[in-house]
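Deviation from plan, reported transparently: calcium ion complex.
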Amino acid sequence: MIINIPENSDFSIHNIPFGIFSTQDRSPRAGVAVGEHILDLAAVAELDVFDFNTAVLEKEVLNDFIGLGKEITKKVRRDIQLWLQDDTSILANKPELFVKRSEAQMHMPVYVNDYTDFYSSIEHATNVGKMFRDPENALLPNWKHIPVGYHGRASSIVVSGEPIHRPKGQTKPKAEEPPVFGPTQRLDFELEMGFITGKNTALGESVSTAEAEDHIFGLVLFNDWSARDIQKWEYVPLGPFLAKNFASHISPWIVTLEALAPFKVHGPQQDPKVLPYLEYEGLKNYDIHLEVGITPDNGSEQTVCKSNFKYMYWNMAQQLAHQTVNGCNINIGDLYGSGTISGKDENSYGSMLELAWMGTKPLKMKDGTERKFILDGDTVTMRGFAEKNGKRIGFGEVSTKILPAK
Ligand code: CA
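Because the crystal trials were delayed, the predicted structure below was used instead.
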């Protein structure tokens, strides 16, 4: 191996995820994560080993690289895997091609043109339905027929590590009194995964479930911040708005669908049968272990949730088929959130809303404090990895500190 990769690293030789990094003396550029290091792709390009226009590797986002198409991006990943494992390859004895991850700053990997958020975990939708509506009929009548979603705000999607201030807004704490304005009292995370599209479609064109994977470049961890009190007051009748658009964070490394292929699994049985355009063949769910930790200010991290991406009722192929069935066009760099990923167990719920059940079951923290929602000074960290037959790949983390309202 050209460079040492620690055992159990998220960024094993099987992964090779793409991102945008910079250091004190390197401008933002494309790289791949390898163990504790980043392989500088713009520097590798100078060795004249790639047969495409390598200017795309010096851009501040990966959109143009992704736009080269899977034939090229898959070959780049495969070549890097081979070179890293061959001590006599073109990467040998060139330490200047690598930087330590700890010395690099990560940036948004893509320019996000458009962002859609789905609501595709049956456990999450059922939990929210029980709390906000009717415990007996928690799922709305459309839920098992449509991968329910909404168009979100792309401008406020930011990369892991960027702190945010507690958002302010309008809420209605007491039914009999007028609404009030101030910092949200119910700041929440949503544990999601996001997929990034790698191909444009023309207006009027649709992507079938069979074609969907050709259009998906890769996945990131996605924390879709939510202000539950603002949400509760504003969401009728048009759905999420200011409770959702103040920030969402993604992990900086895009793990490709090719890297994730060995971890495909069956999804839950869909009953009733879906309409033909949502039918699919083969394995479309992915076995990715997910967890969320909360670190209080000056405290130590405590895991509050362990979930898995494989629980999703609606898969990514169905989501993309639904998104485009009416002819809505999609672009390279679009981001599609899965919706909060909850499992069946109480410790697998993907939001504080569910974990502390609307504040009725506060979580006990190691420092003696309690959490119903997220407090100022808390850092929320999400991690994800897949493991099978000794192969492990991971996403690293998406981590955000909450600062007091401005
Ligand atoms: Ca969401």
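The domain at 115-403 is CATH 3.90.850.10 (Fumarylacetoacetate hydrolase; domain 2). We consider this an acceptable substitute for the interim report.
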